[in-house]
Amino acid sequence: MSSKLMMKNFAVVFGVFVFIVIFVCSLDVKKGFAQSFHPKGEISLQIDVPTRNLSVFVNGTFYKKYPVALGKPSTPTPVGKWRIINKYNDWGGGFGTRWMGLNVPWGIYGIHGTTRPTSIGTYASNGCIRLHNRNVEELYDLVYIGVPVVIVGDPLEHFRRLMVGDIGADVQLIQQRLSKLGFYAGSCNGRFEESTREALETFEEARGLPIVGIVGMKEYEELGLTVK
What Cα–Cα distance (Å) separates residue 188 from each residue in 95, 153, 160, 205? Predict the structure, then answer.
């Protein structure tokens, strides 16, 4: 075999070898990236209503943050301590590519994607937490059923007159105050139902207020609640 042919064969073999090395290294890089994105430990989420951010914690240590869209003043995001109770791909409609449901007792709320990416960073939803689709897909792979979700904010940030049919953390707060004062014995479920109205009317009568069964500014004040 001529030296020229031997050098050609060597070049081919060397080229294949280099290709294999690069390919294997790229797999290791991808594997390392995947491992870095899926840290080991207990995952928890915190959603800050004033700053419109969702933070991921691993074993109590901050890991990553995403911008979100939250509820409008008339349909606020539910402040409180919740958990992820379900996960779905491609719910359709305006929910984007992923859905993670929360165990809020007064309605269906969740963390999901969006078909309106320009809304991210604003108060635009009916109470749910919206993320960019690329971000919600990352988060979806990271969390699991049972992950705790703390939504931080003031349920009385925006004044609402409350009456039968209303739902929300502000309704739940009213129920808790009425219960503490001995006027309400029902479930503090954030739903303004007839039992809440009856308790409120009894409270209004006891405090010398007009008996209307509606939570207005006077009722908030008598219950010791400050509304902004």
Answer: 29, 19, 18, 21
